[in-house]
Amino acid sequence: MGCGQSKEGGAPATCESKANVDEQTYMFLCKVKLLKRLPKDELPALAKQATEVEFKPGQSIITQGEDGHDFFMIKKGTADVEINGKKVASLKAGDYFGENALLRNEPRNATIKANSQVITLKITRQSFMSLGLQDKLEFAKRGAVGGGAAVQAEVKPPCAKSDGDIALIKKALQSNANLNTIANLDEGRMKAMCDVMWKEEVPQGTALIKQNDLQADYFYVVQSGSFAVSKAEDTKEGQSAEDAATAQLGTVEAGGSFGELALLYFAPRAATITATEKSVVFVTARHQFKEILLKANEEETKQNLNYVGRCEVFEAALKDSEKKELAMAMLEMTFSKDETIFEQGEVGTQFFLLIEGSVNVIKDGKEVASLKATADKAPYFGEKALENKEPRAATVKVTSNTARTLFVDQDTFEAVLGSLTELVKRGKDGTTVVSKVPRKTAADTKRFGVIKFKDLKKLGLLGCGGFGAVELVEETKNGNMYALKQLSKGFVVKSGMQQSVMSEKNVQLMCDSPFVVKLYENYNSPEHLYLLLELALGGELYATYNKRNMWGNEPCAKFYVAGTVFAFEHLHSKKIVFRDLKPENLLLTDQGRVKLTDMGLAKVIFGKTYTTCGTPDYFAPELIASKGHGFAVDWWTLGVLTFELMSGHPPFESATPMQIYAKVQKGINTVTFPKKLKGDVEVMVKGLCHANPTERLPMKKGGIQNVKNQKWFSGFSWSDMESLSMKVPYAPTVKSKKDMKNFSANKEDMPPQVPYKDPKTGWDKDFATSD
Ligand code: ADE
């Protein structure tokens, strides 16, 4: 339930002419967050639909738990907001609540009770719908965070600290709840943070952090003085009461700390923090914090290196640096008792090291060996799979309750180190250069340079967000239609996203799947980079769901989740992790087929990667803990997507990112599953959103097939889905190849156009495929 407080809030007069009432109602409606997404000229007609409803003192206007159909604005009187019988806020004239009920059935999450005579203006969903307004709403995308700031922030040498300083810093770290959500701050880590901090004097009136600032790299502990936290007025207008209640406005005194979100990832600052007197702070930068957290990973790599070193094949063939690279590329897979790690006769590509538990090796039905992992012995099997694709010579079956393995597949091995056969021939002391096997890209370079920028005619705006606009363009020569994504080079450089943008282009070029939007050309102009993309005129899934109220529609959810499974299957087979699944990044074609788009955070990985990035509602716990992450984060997001499509909201939804992270860390088992999500779908979501990445369904033996075999999908034809012959559950209306009716871009969502100053690093020189 959205619930807002206007800034004026004064009680209007009660006796007015009808025309004035409409005008006053119109003024009310202009302030409502949801209705700001409507073209302004629609509001007078909506204002006419408002009716006055009176409530007596003590009467409930809406009741927690009940499905709502109406939206209310308080015209006169006051009311209490109660959650679970407890008063949490009060509302006065000018405040409003329940606007989401105009779109969908959603249980009210609070009771609102009149505590005087209250006159409200009410708009029903029926009248909202009868004006066709759901089709006219423009929905802002939820923004992704992280991934940028290629340049490390400046750090200063640590300062000397007294025992009092150390105690103050430790206490500040311990009492910062957000910091403890993102890191398990044991004594060692607290000491390490304290050790690297330096001191800065802050004159009165200095804004140490500025709202929306892109230079957001530091965390501060206040040694002395005081700071005021403030937010610009425009973010308060139309803000829901929930947001207002949780906005961290106030002061930070000695022993307090702020800026912890910057430790997690690069994102513009959410508030301004100004010294109200001469103050002193201790400071640390994000990359220092990340290095401290990464120490645990170094330990893990060292341990893996140990295991790799004990394997005779590698010991004889690999140099120390190669063994380290292999150790970093190996992933963990866990098996249960009686599961087979592989079967005799099947063609395998993976090599395994057994690091915990025991197995039997069975050949032609007879046990030929029994292997057990011990503190100083990690048995290995399947090494032949790294050299050729021969059938397995034996079956390996788990005999302990669980068995933990490290594994690597042939593609990864060859991309990281080259052919094992060659390496064995060379030997660890050899000098012959063994070349790494380049990954095959789908990109047929001959197809580039065909479509010229000068031949493209812009026909209209499809969307904005991230780094710029997406426009509908026509290749005038032949009438072919595309989507042209434009990135401001100034903004890319200012936010340190050069590497990400180049990676977006490279990753997108590797893709060739009907479930992933295709890239045709790239262009480079003095101020902008452009990606010429496959067009999908059915609209964004997020907007479609909101406009058509498709939340909870099971056939639709299955269809779109299945399409995403094929998209991920394709990306992961190319070692690409996507990292930004959300309904905003799924597009519908004119036929109603689904395609994944926006490779802005996608990356080729071997082993784990460490940059925290994604969309907060979809963050997996290992991203929040900066532990290093891999393909399993995508499967977590698939669970979140399923939950959201079926319920209308993501499972860990909260007013602020930090509150989301706190919920994510508590785990999926603490989430209340709505009725629609009970049974088989709950089982699947929980199987995908397992706290331990190695336990997520596709990460276990059986891989992606484990998702396809889920009961929720029983009766679903995966082969029809894959061959694009399945009937679509929803067919968008697309009247012509230029019909943009399914898009309603809001220019206000456009990122700032920053004038470009070439840093002369040549970062963009390989971008263009055509002129
Ligand atoms: N293809 C890639 N991005 C697109 C968008 N935003 N709209 C339509 N088609 C697209």
From TrEMBL:
Biased composition (Basic and acidic residues): 741-750, 757-771
Key words of the record: ATP-binding, Kinase, Nucleotide-binding, Serine/threonine-protein kinase, Transferase
Catalytic activity, as annotated: L-threonyl-[protein] + ATP = O-phospho-L-threonyl-[protein] + ADP + H(+); L-seryl-[protein] + ATP = O-phospho-L-seryl-[protein] + ADP + H(+)
GO molecular function: kinase activity
Region called Disordered, residue ranges: 741-771
Domain Protein kinase: 456-713
Cyclic nucleotide-binding domain residues: 34-131, 181-310, 314-426
A Pfam family assignment: cNMP_binding
Ranges of residues in domain AGC-kinase C-terminal: 714-771
EC number: 2.7.11.12
Domain of life of the organism encoding this protein: Eukaryota
SMART domains in UniProt: cNMP, S_TKc
InterPro entries on file: AGC-kinase_C, cNMP-bd_CS, cNMP-bd_dom, cNMP-bd_dom_sf, Kinase-like_dom_sf, Prot_kinase_dom, Protein_kinase_ATP_BS, RmlC-like_jellyroll
Annotated residues for binding of ATP: 494
Family in the record: Belongs to the protein kinase superfamily. AGC Ser/Thr protein kinase family. cGMP subfamily.
Descriptive protein name: cGMP-dependent protein kinase
Organism whose genome encodes this protein: Durusdinium trenchii
Top-level taxonomy: Eukaryota, Sar, Alveolata, Dinophyceae, Suessiales
